[in-house]
Amino acid sequence: MGNPVEIRAWNIFGLPCDSFSIDNGIIIKNSRRWPLMIDPQEQANKWVKNMEKSNGLVVIRLSMGDYIRTLENAIGFGFPVLLENVGEEIDAVLEPLLLKQIFKTGNAWSIKLGDAVVEYNESFKFYITTKLRNPHYLPEIAVKVTLLNFMITPVGLSDQLLGTVVAKDRPDLEAEKNQLIVQGADNKRWAR
Fold first, then answer.
1. What is the pLDDT of residues 1-14, one digit of tens each?
2. CA-CA distances (angstroms) from residue 171 to 41, 128, 163, 180?
3. Could you tell me which of 59, 38, 63 has the C-alpha nearest to residue 49?
4. Are 20 and 98 within one domain?
5. Are residues 101 and 17 in the same domain?
């Protein structure tokens, strides 16, 4: 389900190498709803920041006074947005965005945020993270997002530590692994 070269790029951007984290990355890529990531160790936060940096990532928090204005601009220009450190409740103004209630106005797509109608650029992406270890989201929120748990599991920690040790002790093996991943992807493309 996941492209090995893309997954390797995610790992380079900071997504942990364990299968649990990779599965979460694949879900985010293929989901129709925006991701809400439970991320007490801030690994998903780091991954999104590194992955979307070159696309003009905008980082906002609900505590910022002008976060809606910043969000409106990012939606219009098609910049990815990371809403970080949310609690168990999410501002109701964001509901049309969570539900992707976009509509056509003339030749352009638009979305209503509060009182403002904003042009919606289809390149826009929205990520949400929380540092809470065990949040209790109401069903009204949970059905509007793709809820993902990025908390480190014992197996995940073991996989991450093993990957770090191999990369440090045997960089030649790490380089060979990367080369084989790229070669495997090339072979798959050639076979089609």
1. 688 889 988 988 98
2. 26, 34, 11, 14
3. 59
4. no
5. no
> Is residue 39 within 8 Å of residue 131, measured between CB atoms?
yes
Cβ contacts of 153 within 8 Å, gap of 6 or more:
18, 20
pTM: 0.85
The DSSP letter of residue 99 is T
Q: Is 130 left (phi over 0), alpha (psi -120 to 50) or beta?
A: beta
**Residue 174 in this model has a pLDDT that exceeds 70:** yes
What digits encode the pLDDT tens for the residues 51-100?
A: 999 999 999 999 998 999 999 999 999 999 999 999 999 999 999 999 99
* 135 and 60 within one domain: yes
Residue 148: count of CB within 10 angstroms of its CB: 22
Question: In this structure, are 187 and 146 located in the same domain?
Answer: no
Work out the average pLDDT over 126-149: 96
Question: Are 3 and 23 in the same domain?
Answer: yes
Structure tokens at 132: 């809470």
Q: What gap in Å lies between CA 125 and CA 151, rounded to an integer? A: 23
Spatial contact of 40 and 132, defined as CB atoms under 8 Å apart: yes
Q: Please name the amino acid found at residue 160.
A: Q
Tell me which DSSP letter residue 34 carries: P
